[in-house]
Write a structure and sequence with these properties.
By secondary structure, the protein is mainly alpha-helical. The chain is built from 10 helices and 4 strands. A hairpin with a 2-residue loop joins strand 3 and strand 4. The chain is elongated and about 75 Å long. It starts with 15 loop residues before the first helix and ends in a 38-residue tail after the last strand.
Length: about 325
């Protein structure tokens, strides 16, 4: 449960946008702020060092390609250049993937917008550095004819775009995201424990949700552990899952909506509505009765009475 709670009435006069703006200026969200553990910081540092080494080697290979294969006044070997381009791509992409993984262990804060952008999209920046000078010099090279320039330029651009796409982090993690998700889970369930599957797109507040029902390998752990495993976020339909599949009531969810700042960032449209400045569970979400979690008993629930039929003895008559 969150240790520090704000009265719901204090938010009633503010819109969701105003509350979000306030949270962006604060150091923490209600219930506490995420801080990477020393172990997580150490792991992130190691991953970032390896990533930087790969990027440096990639740029070194780019310089070698320019100086040795393009600039000398000699015929250009098309297949050799293509091989070098592929090598640059492998090194650059390897560094980008490791850097993105490091950010899951030790994310940046959204408050510092420049650092947040650079830290999360450094892979894209390094891709540009590793390919743009090479692409420019391919088209300016005087030792190649138009056909060679077209082939090598197209290959270099295509590979660079492909590496850039995989280097871009569209689900960039942040301290604020981790904080809000952990506070939601703790406020709802009383513990920092979520459930997910390998290669899943989101983690969940209980294991009985439909998205996990067909999986034989359900993993569980803290919100931080889920992110470190590569799961990008808390499911944005956690409200409906909590009330329909996990045995929580609308009152439980309303408590979360009232006590956790910036909670709307964790929700899909249609999960909640805003009334008088406060978030509440949407009517369509509570149309169905909540489904109790397995092994969960309902108060005052008694087993249906069973009756054992009494064998009847056939009537006999005497004359």
């Amino acid at each position: 449960m969150a240790e520090s709670k704000k009265p719901r009435s204090s938010k009633s006069s503010k819109s969701r946008a105003e509350r979000g703006a306030e949270v962006a200026e604060q150091n923490t969200t209600s219930g506490g702020s995420f801080h990477a553990s020393p172990e997580a910081k150490s792991t992130a540092l190691k991953l970032r060092i390896v990533a930087m080494v790969l990027w440096i080697v990639a740029i070194g290979l780019e310089i070698f390609t320019i100086v040795w294969a393009l600039l000398p006044d000699k015929p250009v070997n098309t297949w050799l250049i293509i091989g070098l381009i592929v090598g640059i791509a492998v090194l650059t992409l390897g560094g980008s993937l490791l850097w993105k993984k490091a950010n899951r262990y030790d994310p940046a804060s959204e408050k510092d917008k420049v650092r947040f952008f650079v830290q999360n999209q450094l892979g894209v920046i390094m891709t540009i550095l590793a390919f743009l000078p090479l692409i420019v010099l391919i088209f300016l090279d005087k030792n190649m004819d138009g056909k060679q320039k077209g082939i090598l330029g197209t290959v270099a651009i295509a590979v660079a775009v492909l590496v850039g796409v995989f280097s871009f982090d569209k689900d960039a993690p942040s301290v604020e995201q981790y904080s809000v998700e952990a506070n939601v889970v703790k406020e709802l369930t009383g513990a920092d424990k979520v459930f997910w599957t390998k290669n899943g797109s989101a983690f969940h507040v209980c294991a009985e949700v439909p998205d996990l029902s067909r999986s034989k390998d359900i993993q569980d752990g803290t919100v931080t552990a889920a992110h470190e495993a590569g799961i990008p976020r808390l499911t944005k339909k956690w409200v409906s899952e909590a009330t329909k599949n996990c045995g929580y009531t609308t009152a439980d969810v309303d408590r979360v909506l009232g006590n956790v700042d910036d909670v709307s960032r964790t929700l899909d449209e249609g999960q909640v509505i805003e009334q008088s400045g406060e978030l509440e569970v949407a009517p369509e979400v509570i149309d169905e009765e909540p489904t109790p979690a397995p092994n969960e008993t309902t108060p005052n629930e008694t087993a249906p009475a069973t009756t054992t039929p009494t064998p009847q003895t056939p009537a006999t008559s005497t004359r």
